[in-house]
Design brief:
Number of helices: 8
Helix content: 10-25%
Distance between the termini: 76 Å
Shape: globular
Structural class: mainly beta
Strand content: 35-45%
Number of strands: 47
Length: about 650
């Protein structure tokens, strides 16, 4: 018995340690666009900033290998492509000479990535895609439009007879054997060969056969593969198949977003639009691989021996087959969890977040450990006590209980009840923005002049942003004078407080035929404000056609428009802020942030009070704010039904084009 007790005591620290997940996130510099998988299941990731990371398998921790390439100053890494478990090629935008601007090199390894040799392939080309086989053959191409071939694991290269040029480039290449293959380019072209690119012939694309419509111009061939008697293509994110001999592109019975072929079974593995995995033995014969779906948009997929491996945008990796659905984040023990930038403390617990990770500080071990992983990026945490914490992700609140490990959505009610117990004393409204589309700011301040009204005190226009992020003090004064009743403001806020999660419906906006006609007349200026570049502007006649037949637009799309993410983004951020201060010196903040264009009526507003945030989709709040600002106030154009009508038409067009109608 004594021996057993002693053994338990010796094991106890190990058991306790396992309860504390002290693994750090695999933090990488630069984007990751590909998941690399060796024939024996080793996983590799490379980044645009020349970092290389390795895991023995999906169940193992990751290790950094970037020290192998510290002298490579002028390169971007894209992928590692394997011949076999020992030999591989690392490609991307790589220069053979340090600090050179030429893209003329690849790295090769013959010892499972322990060491790498840089090889000059004799041209200036960022390599966009590469195809390898177990016989040591490799085909690759990219920005120059040229194609290259090696028969000795990438040690020596020959330039092939390419159908592409520097203007079309080469985006995807796939070879079934030494002679037969297919390749696609940036601008709507697919070619095939039967003699290793000594000769080639062009085949019609889905876009040329009018299988879909688009507002964009390049119609890029993202991926193309031979599969049994078929050709499979991803053109501009539309996936089709055709018989090899009779080129007539068709849709799959399931809407797909990516695909890859399992060389061991010759089956087609594909990710559906709703993020399930399907396996096809033919275009009409298929089954769902697993009843679970991946949770995020995939970046890349690979298939090995009837298992599909997926990297998603949240840097999770999946291994999925008939028997297994395994997912994990990228973790390493090469370093500890770093000291977080922001920390919050309840009575006896120090909390922190980093992306999806919730951390707690272990005072005894003097280190951070991972308490929980959220299914989203958390942007704010508010402790309730030492065991419960409120989590905000810019859309919803969630409550996490440390004791029970329960986690779920939390919808606080009567959020601003305490604020409304005191009269409103002041309102400060500002709208500001900066970046490549111009900058500036407007501000208007209301003060309580009586017991019944608020009166505009000043309106300022700022044109210069200082280096510390504030606007230059000298401003242009405006004569705008306005008086708003306190009862109207109070009434609107009570409506929000009583039902903070109400989403305005189509009928709430009171859209009229006059609004629709006004949208048609103003379509030019609306397009210019919404689309950041002329190349992305849809044809005016398509939008106008929708507007002329507005009755055919489903009015339920209003909710989708208000919930939609921004269609285009830029480096600049604009903000609209309303601070309402009561006599108790409490502040109710109402804000909206956007990049290129805000949503109609600036909905949803983020409302913040006493550390709690929620989104408000109530049109009445926007109506009140519109009444508080002059017509020429910055970003006032979004307080208008014309922009809502345009967005409904644009959204409907996008959905029709996605469905190929």
């Amino acid at each position: 018995m004594r021996t057993i007790i002693l053994l338990l005591l010796l094991l106890a620290p190990a058991i306790f340690t396992q309860e504390r997940d002290i693994r750090a996130e695999l933090n990488t510099m630069g984007s990751i666009n590909n998941l690399s998988l060796s024939p024996n299941g080793n996983l590799w990731l490379v980044t645009k900033m020349k970092e290389v990371c390795f895991a023995k398998d999906i169940y193992s921790n990751w290790n950094y290998k970037d020290t192998l390439f510290v002298s490579d100053c002028s390169s971007n890494f894209d992928r590692i492509s394997f011949f076999d478990e020992n030999n591989a090629i690392l490609s991307g935008d790589i220069s053979y000479f340090p600090d050179s601007l030429s893209s003329n090199a690849v790295y090769i390894t013959n010892d499972k990535g322990k060491s790498w040799e840089k090889v000059n392939f004799g041209d200036n080309s960022w390599i966009y895609d590469i195809c390898t086989n177990k016989y040591g053959e490799a085909w690759m191409g990219g920005s120059s439009g040229n194609m290259f071939y090696s028969s000795d694991h990438g040690k020596n290269w020959n330039k092939l007879n390419s159908p592409f040029s520097e203007s079309t480039r080469m985006c995807s290449i796939s070879m079934t054997d030494h002679n037969n293959g297919i390749s696609g380019a940036l601008y709507n072209s697919i070619y095939k060969t039967i003699d290793n690119w000594k000769t080639f012939s062009k085949i019609s694309t889905p876009f040329e056969q009018k299988k879909y419509t688009t507002q964009k111009s390049n119609n890029r061939i993202n991926k193309v593969r031979y599969w049994n008697n078929y050709i499979i293509v991803n053109q501009a994110n539309h996936i089709f198949y055709t018989d090899k001999k009779n080129i007539r592109w068709k849709k799959f019975p399931v809407k797909l977003i990516d695909f890859e072929i399992d060389k061991s079974t010759n089956e087609l593995f594909a990710i559906s639009n709703d993020l399930f995995i399907y396996v096809f033995s033919s275009p009409s014969e298929y089954y769902k691989l697993n009843d679970q779906q991946i949770s995020e948009t995939p970046i890349d997929m690979k298939v090995l021996d009837t298992s599909v491996y997926i990297l998603d945008i949240s840097k999770k990796i999946y291994k999925i087959n008939k028997r297994e659905f395994y997912q994990t984040h990228l973790y390493t023990v090469d370093h500890k969890i770093p000291e977080p930038r922001t920390k919050v403390k309840s009575k006896n617990t120090t909390w922190s977040i980093n992306g999806r990770n919730l951390y707690i500080y272990d005072n005894g071990e003097k280190e951070w450990y991972r308490e929980y992983v959220f299914p989203f990026d958390a942007t704010k945490i508010t402790p309730i006590d030492d065991n419960k914490i409120l989590v905000w992700n810019d859309k919803n609140n969630y409550l996490y209980d440390r004791e029970t490990k329960n986690f779920g959505i939390y919808r606080p009610t009567l959020v601003i009840n305490e604020f409304l117990k005191f009269p409103i004393n002041k309102i400060d409204i500002s709208s500001a923005g900066g970046g490549c589309f111009g900058g500036g700011a407007n501000q208007i301040v209301y003060t309580n002049r009586s017991n019944t009204d608020l009166e505009s005190e000043s309106i300022n226009e700022y044109k210069d942003l200082l280096t510390n992020g504030t606007w230059k003090e000298d401003s242009t004064k405006n004569d705008f004078k306005n008086i708003v009743s306190l009862s109207k403001i109070d009434s609107t806020l009570h409506v929000i407080n009583s039902d903070p999660y109400y989403v305005s419906m189509y009928t709430d906006f009171g859209i009229t035929q006059k609004d629709i006609k006004g949208t048609i007349q103003a379509i030019g200026s609306i397009l210019r404000s919404y689309y950041p570049a002329p190349t992305y502007q849809p044809a005016k006649k398509l939008i106008i056609s929708k507007l002329m037949n507005f009755g055919k637009i489903n009015t339920r799309v209003v909710r989708d428009v208000l919930f939609a993410e921004e269609k285009y983004t830029s480096t600049g951020i604009s903000s609209f802020d309303v601070n309402i201060i009561n006599n108790n010196n409490d502040t109710l903040n109402i804000s909206r942030k956007y990049s290129v264009a805000s949503n109609p009526w600036h909905l949803p507003w983020k409302i913040t009070y006493h550390g709690i945030d929620f989104l408000c989709y109530n049109y009445k709040l926007s109506l009140l704010i519109k009444e508080l600002i002059p017509k020429n106030f910055r970003a006032s154009e979004y307080f208008d039904n014309k922009f809502l009508i345009f967005r409904m038409a644009d959204y409907t067009l996008d959905k029709e084009q996605e469905q190929g109608e």
